[in-house]
Predict the 3D structure of the following.
Amino acid sequence: MGHPAEKLHPATHADLEAVPPHEVAELIQGTLYVFPRAAPRHASAHSSLGMQLGPPFRFGEGGPGGWWLLDEPELHLGVQHLWIVDRIERLLEVFALTPEGWLLRGVHHDDEKVRAAPFDAIELDLSMLWNKPAPPAGSST
């Protein structure tokens, strides 16, 4: 969660409206929390992942279905899997939580097609994260 803004009185809707456009804010029980807005590259990668994971994991189209996929750029307690997407280096690091701590399970680069827990029921095309869709299967391009 973001850090509360320094205020001596409860924050109001006017305080929320005064937050600069490059930041995101929440007003919770009189406390204003301010966060940096995701960079366009991050938002693009995030949207691409959602488009790939939603049909099979949320809706059961070619996957298990029934999952609730929520877009949050924060890590919360109880998470068993962690993906770090680096759009500049064009890599995906996949971690799993073990009793000893976070274990690196795989590093995937560039335009690889991967199956990585917890989404290993489908193959993910990493090129979608870098805004460069792979050519269709059997294409000569």
